[in-house]
Amino acid sequence: MTIWTELSSIEHSLTFVDAGGVPTRSLRAGPENGQAVVFLHGTSGHLEAFVRNLRPHAQAGYRCHAIDMLGHGYTGKPDHPYEIPRYADHLRTYLDACGIDRAHLVGESLGGWVAAWLASEHPDRVLSLQLIAAGGTKANPQVMERIRTSTLKAVETDDIELTRQRLHLLMHNPDRDVSEELVELRHRIYHEPAFVAGVHHLLCLQDMETRKRNLLTAERMAALTMPTLIIWGRQNPFGDVPEARAMHEAIPGSRLELFEDCGHWPQHERHEIYNPLSLAFLETAS
Fold first, then answer.
1. According to the model, what pLDDT value does residue 168 have?
2. How far is CA 66 from CA 13, 77, 133, 204, 267, in A?
3. Which of 92, 191, 196, 256 has a C-alpha 20 to 30 A away from that of 72?
4. AB hydrolase-1 domain: from which residue to which, for each copy (predicted)?
């Protein structure tokens, strides 16, 4: 199964949106009058992280937006460090540019961190939250170094095997879930001159002092009163289950779902469980 065959049965568009002066790559699918669901990927990722999710959500009547976040993929790369408020501002300007007053936000890893931050700052813009293996509640130096080192090796060396290893790090069962197409796509992105030039801006959250001032505090999470679904893989290499439970306890009324046989990409690795779960949640949150 390829990215093309996942999407070939539905009407979709791949375009660039001017979000506050930042050209933002956007894959859109589903009826234009449907409620907006915006999908946000993780650190050094890109919109294809949700390729197994767009078709069922679009067919259920939602207007799906999967974007390359600030400094990621083929989106513009301003010359400054990408801290969480900047990501959130970019997301807000994307919503404005698309005429979206309120959206359901689905964020994986870094994307969940950004979604939660925007929701805490602008709760009137967010219908619901899905925090999928979301980062931002801890500063674990071992995990941070693993992210920094594996990403830099893959970006600074042309060996595609290093890109493959970076993707394998995310998945509990990489032989099942990491396609050669996904490896080739990420390798191409990693070696775009603008991406190489800006990779340290992208990795600034792996610096301890920078990360600490961007963390989702208990007070910020307590302010998240919109319907919130937390999804976590039991074999997540970047965060143990207690981290998910603590997030669940901090966010009032949130729901926690733990996936077996799953690492850091639950929406991709266990899409057959995730998609119906997400759609049922969205129906109750609409």
1. 97
2. 11, 18, 17, 23, 13
3. 256
4. 36-269
- Indicate if the pLDDT at residue 51 is higher than 70: yes
pLDDT digits (tens, 9 = 90+) for 54-109: 999 999 999 999 999 999 999 999 999 999 999 999 999 999 999 999 999 999 99
Task: Name the residue type at position 172.
Answer: H
Amino acid at 120: S
**Per-residue pLDDT tens digits for 207-219:** 999 999 999 999 9
pTM score? 0.98
Contact 259, 101 (CB under 8 A): no
Q: Kindly report the CA angle at 101 between 110 and 67, in degrees rounded to 5? A: 35
Running DSSP on this structure, what letter comes out for residue 123? G
Instruction: Give CA–CA dist 9/76, Å, rounded.
Output: 29
CA dist., res. 112 & res. 124, Å (int): 18
The residues that bridge with 36 in the sheet, in sequence order, are 63, 103
Report in angstroms the alpha-carbon separations of 165 from 150, 161, 187. 8, 6, 11
Backbone angles phi, psi at 216, to 5 degrees: -80, 105
- What is the domain partition of the chain in residue ranges? 3-285
Number of Cβ atoms within 10 Å of the Cβ of 78: 15
Residue showing tokens 């949700």: 50
CA 250/CA 274 separation, integer angstroms: 23
Question: How would you write 30-54 as a 3-class SS string?
Answer: CCCCCCEEEEECCCCCCHHHHCCCH
> DSSP secondary-structure letter at 206?
G
Amino acid occupying residue 14: L
* Strand-pair partners of 128: 104
Q: Strand ranges (DSSP E) for the chain?
A: 12-19, 22-29, 36-40, 63-67, 103-108, 126-132, 228-233, 255-259
